[in-house]
Amino acid sequence: MYPYQLKSFEEYQQAYHQSVIDPEGFWANIAEHFYWRKKWDKVLEWDFKSPNIKWFAGGKLNITENCLDRHLGTLGNQPAIIWEPNEPDEHHRIITYRDLYNKVCQFANVLKNNGVKKGDRVCIYMGMIPELAIATLACARIGAIHSVVFGGFSAQSIADRIQDAQCSLVITCDGAFRGGKDIPLKSVIDDALIGCPTVKRVIVCTRTRTPVSMLKGRDVWWEDEIKQVETMGNPACPAEEMDAEDMLFILYTSGSTGKPKGVVHTCGGYMVYANYTFVNTFQYQPGEVYFCTADIGWITGHSYIAYGPLSAGATTLMFEGVPTYPDAGRLWDIVDKYRVNILYTAPTAIRSLMGYGLGPVNHKDLSSLRKLGSVGEPINEEAWHWFKDNIGKGRCPIVDTWWQTETGGIMITPIAGITPEKPGYATLPLPGVQPILVDENGKEVTGNNVSGNLCIKFPWPGMLRTTFGDHERFRKTYFSTYEGLYFTGDGCMRDEDGYYRITGRVDDVLNVSGHRIGTAEVENAINMHAGVVESAVVGYPHEIKGQGIYAFVIAERFTHDAELTKKDILQTVSRIIGPIAKPDKIQFVSGLPKTRSGKIMRRILRKIAEGEFDNLGDTSTLLEPAVVEEIKKGKL
Ligand code: PRX
After folding, report:
1. Is the beta carbon of 378 within 6 A of some atom in ligand 1?
2. Which of 211, 308, 562, 583 has the most beta carbons within 10 angstroms of its beta carbon?
3. How far is the CA of 256 from the centre of ligand 1 (A)?
């Protein structure tokens, strides 16, 4: 089924070697196995200076023909998506490849009827229901560029993203069910759209049946629009022919400065890479049921719920709810119910479930599991072993997959059952990935048993091509720190065996429960609160979330009740970014440690937040050294 699936460690080594000495030949051989309307003229064109990266230039394709049409003959009646609702006793849905094809075509026609054309940007803000996958694929079908925004972001965040991408249409739901909560998606969109004149149409899919306002001339119901298409007869929708380098989607992600940037992925390279990494990392076998617990609002959902598995003709399980609802055994119930073979989840979920003990795991039938995966943040050894022993029962390999929104797909990881694994280590690069470690001066750190900043020195097909509307920001963020290298922002060590261990971000980006949040963004949000003069945000180790958010805040005045003011600030952050960015701790301070030039010394704050008081380094160069003592005393 997958001629390029590696079957042994030797095959991995050979493929890796081949991918370094002849990257173009290597990727061309893999790309051959996809459906192209026209083959590429040139496999790769690149320079990391401009930067300019093109894979399979001149190639013509549509990713949905690879995810849907080409499977109809052989897999038409196979489940493409299994959908498990939030409530365990609500009916689940099984959508075969033929059903999915029909639904995508139908909704693609709806989009066309509503004026969407190739190249238009469409914002998608929905819960985890099959219509979310259908909406994204329908955009891809007609060449519209989707920008999915995670259902936990606030109106302001959505507005920023819609404005940046100049979206003309929004697809949303009346609401979303997540655990015990109903999230009023449409109402959030209504607030967001006050400042978004480019949006001419909103399509609203029914899920929670919560009352919503429908604006005449702008808002229409998904179901009504589908009916209209049905009355027109033939639901087929020919796929738009796309150039390999046409944009497929934008996904916003946080960096160390400014507002989130729109990471751009293109059609050809992304498809090949998402598929290759899915098929290999998880060693997917036809018929296996694969369950990734991420949300489609993040890159993991894009690449490993939707495009990777579907392009491979796999059965992908989509879960609407959360691992702890109605109880902490929910994931294990799902594994049991659908005989899940591959489970891909996040360390934060594992740690939170560990906290409930083995009660919710015992007596669940997990015998169908064959492979386990972890993504999003470093996995601590304790969580790794718990996952291995209690979920995998000691017989399932774990793939600790390191990658980023920008990389489009998995970069450094064990290959399940094929290459070695080591707790806490992402281990070895996949074929086609050339990592290097550099010191602060950009000098390569060679040999083993070394640490440095992680860079990639050669392009891979899944890499981002630009940041939407701002190519200079793309260059500055990723290619200017170290000349000629893509800089990941991560610190990394390479052990005596040459295995890579990612140690976390070295820039001002936090990873909270696997969600990426810029400290600058959180500070901006806090500073918008009336009465706040200035703030500084750092991360600190958090038992479940991986990192927690610690905010040091100078407030001009607070309502005599400091606790109430903290709550007000949390509310402000929720409004500006979303609940995921709410600080775990807020400490009011009278000043911040600053250099004479006015720069906040985050290093000192980080140490204090971590409770490491002894090792603050030289504080004599500070403007007001006394402030450090005060902050230490008030530490929460
Ligand atoms: O710091 C790394 C961490 O998550 C960052 C990327 O975040 P995001 O773009 O949101 O993508 C998350 C899903 C791919 C990285 O820079 N990270 C991701 N996976 C791992 C990881 N850190 C350690 N180990 C991992 N397996």
Report:
1. yes
2. 308
3. 15
Only one residue has tokens 């370094």, namely 20
Task: Report in angstroms the alpha-carbon separations of 159 from 123, 138, 186, 187, 422.
Answer: 10, 23, 13, 13, 43
Q: Are 346 and 294 a contacting pair, CB within 8 Å?
A: yes
Give yes or no: residues 67 and 179 share one domain.
yes
**Per-residue pLDDT tens over the stretch 51-100:** 999 999 999 999 999 999 999 999 999 999 999 999 999 999 999 999 99
Assess whether the C-beta atom of 375 lies below 6 angstroms from ligand 1. Answer: yes
Any atom of ligand 1 within 6 Å of the Cβ of 299: yes
Residue 504 CA: which ligand 1 atom is closest?
A: 1
DSSP state for residue 69 in the 8-state scheme: G
Which DSSP symbol is given to 304?
Answer: I
DSSP 407: G
CATH number at residue 317: 3.40.50.12780
pLDDT in tens, 89-111: 999 999 999 999 999 999 999 99
Average pLDDT, the chain: 96
Tell me: pLDDT of 452 over 70: yes
3-state helix, strand and coil shares in percent for the chain, rounded to the nearest 5: 30, 25, 40
At 234 the pLDDT is 67
In angstroms, what is the span from residue 591 Cα to ligand 1's centroid?
33
Residue 560 has pLDDT above 80, yes or no: no
Helical spans, DSSP H, in 263-346: 267-281, 299-301, 308-311, 330-338
Asked whether 207 lines ligand 1 (CB < 6 A), one says no
Considering only CA atoms, which residue is closest to atom 22 of ligand 1?
377
* Residue positions counted in the chain: 636
pLDDT of residue 257: 83
In a domain, 557, yes or no: yes
Q: Is 377 in the pocket of ligand 1 (CB under 6 A)?
A: yes
Q: Is the pLDDT of residue 558 over 80?
A: no
Q: pTM for the whole thing?
A: 0.97
Same domain, 563 and 435: no
